[in-house]
């Protein structure tokens, strides 16, 4: 039995690949465009950071909801819980942009912690896959960044902007690579 390439990708692919491979290609391209836009903003205000974080969390919630629609069993439950958590974090960031930066860093740290734990769990379940260790390293880095963002370690605004841009870029590249792997059915 062939192992799934990604948690959100169904196992019952035909030998020619998944006919919806292009959806991952389009979303990956959109993530890369978003990363380019992120690095061009002026991040001097906390409100701009709150809106940026809210956008990223709501996009992650949408991605998890789509992944939940394509999975079954406990994976579906995990994706639904993550979608709800990311939507709540994103909504809170939009509703209270004027709150102190400490609150924003706490919301951001919570998001990093959730995403890091999820990436580690997925990586451990995907150990038979070719590059499973990339998800493990990514999850560990996200958890370390979560504690950095929650602590009082200096340039939190810089960390927030760089993380959002870099993670959007990495997510886009991963989706594009996955799209071509799914297209060829490998």
Could you give the topology of this structure?
Elements: H1 21-38, H2 46-69, H3 74-95, H4 101-125, H5 132-150, H6 156-184
Helix pairs in contact: 1-6, 2-3, 2-4, 2-6, 3-4, 4-5
Would you mind describing this structure in some detail?
The protein has 6 helices and no strands. It has helices at residues 21-38, 46-69, 74-95, 101-125, 132-150, 156-184. The protein has 186 residues and is mainly alpha-helical. The chain is globular and about 50 Å long. The two termini are 13 Å apart. The relative contact order is 0.19. Helix 2 (46-69) runs antiparallel to helix 3 and helix 2 (46-69) packs parallel to helix 4 (101-125). Helix content is 74%, strand content 0%. The model has no long low-confidence stretch (mean pLDDT 79).
- Alpha carbon gap, first and last residue: 13 Å
Binned, the helix content reads: over 70%
Spans of at least 5 consecutive residues whose pLDDT stays below 50 are: none
| Nearest-integer average pLDDT | 79
Number of strands: 0
Number of helices: 6
Order of helices and strands: HHHHHH
- Alpha-beta content class: mainly alpha
* Rg (CA only): 17 Å
Shape: globular
Instruction: Give the biggest sheet.
Output: none
* Beta strand %: under 5%
């Amino acid at each position: 039995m062939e192992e799934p390439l990604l948690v959100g990708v169904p196992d019952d692919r035909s030998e020619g690949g998944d006919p919806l491979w292009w959806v991952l290609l389009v979303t990956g391209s959109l993530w890369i465009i978003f990363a380019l836009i992120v690095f061009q903003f002026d991040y001097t205000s906390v409100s701009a950071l709150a809106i940026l974080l809210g956008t990223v969390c709501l996009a992650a919630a949408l991605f998890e909801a789509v992944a939940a629609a394509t999975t079954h069993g406990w994976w579906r439950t995990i994706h639904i819980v993550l979608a709800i958590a990311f939507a709540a974090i994103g909504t809170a960031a939009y509703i209270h942009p004027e709150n102190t930066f400490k609150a924003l860093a706490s919301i951001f740290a919570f998001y990093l912690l959730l995403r890091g734990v999820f990436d580690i769990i997925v990586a451990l379940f995907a150990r038979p896959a070719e590059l499973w260790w990339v998800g493990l390293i990514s999850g560990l880095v996200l958890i370390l960044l979560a504690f950095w963002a929650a602590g009082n370690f200096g340039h939190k605004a810089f960390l927030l902007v760089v993380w959002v841009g870099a993670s959007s870029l990495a997510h886009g590249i991963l989706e594009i690579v996955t799209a071509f792997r799914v297209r060829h059915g490998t």
